[in-house]
Amino acid sequence: MSVNSLDVVIGAGSAIGRALVERWSREGAQPILAVARSVEALAAVELLGVQTHRCDYSEASLAPLAAQLQEQSTDIKRLVICNGVLQGEGYRPERALNQLKTTAMEQVFEVNAFVPMRVLASLAPVIKRSAAPRIAVLSARVGSIGDNGLGGWYSYRGSKAALNMMLRCAALETRRVNPSAKIMAYHPGTVDTPLSEPFQASVAPEKLFSPARAAEALDTVLSSLAADGELSYLDWRGETIPW
Fold this sequence. Notes:
Blueprint: E1 4-10, H1 15-27, E2 32-36, H2 39-46, E3 51-54, H3 59-71, E4 74-81, H4 102-129, E5 134-138, H5 154-177, E6 182-187, E7 190-191, E8 208-209, H6 211-223, E9 231-235
Parallel strand pairs: 1-2, 1-4, 2-3, 4-5, 5-6, 6-9, 7-8
Helix pairs in contact: 1-6, 3-4, 4-5
């Protein structure tokens, strides 16, 4: 049975996801699959000559994607999950307990924690049989409990901390079925995207990265990972973040 090597970018409609697809397409090491919700986003990356798949990240929508990859005997080389949200219509990061709203918390946890885990759950059979998959999931430094000296941003911090815990579980499970796999929770730094735009005023210019620079850093850190059965929690410099 032939094996098809593939790089996969989930959330390819995001600034970082799009930049990563562009970077990998220039490399041409193996085919790329770009997954996104938006038809417009997929149309844009299709111009780069990559495969695309539209998905709303529900279990029902992820199932045919996973089935397709299994049927094609896909060997995932690199998998990056870029989905994330900080604020949306009618809600912003909470600075105090009295600002907490259930609907906002549910939305932030859905995108930041539940979507990435549904993706990993759906692709688990493909990851299991891939030769040496390297997996990066966009987390955030503010998801660190030990590094939290300011408080606030309840939903965002909580969702990223929850993501980290579930990724730790996934790493432990994955090493039992594929010791050559590696999972990383990744902090990309502050990237010039719509997500960070309202908060960029306090960021030094040299610490505000373009999407292309962020993709380069992510690619470098991802390439440096060695399979050890542990979840790495790293920033854009490749430095460990405290849990």
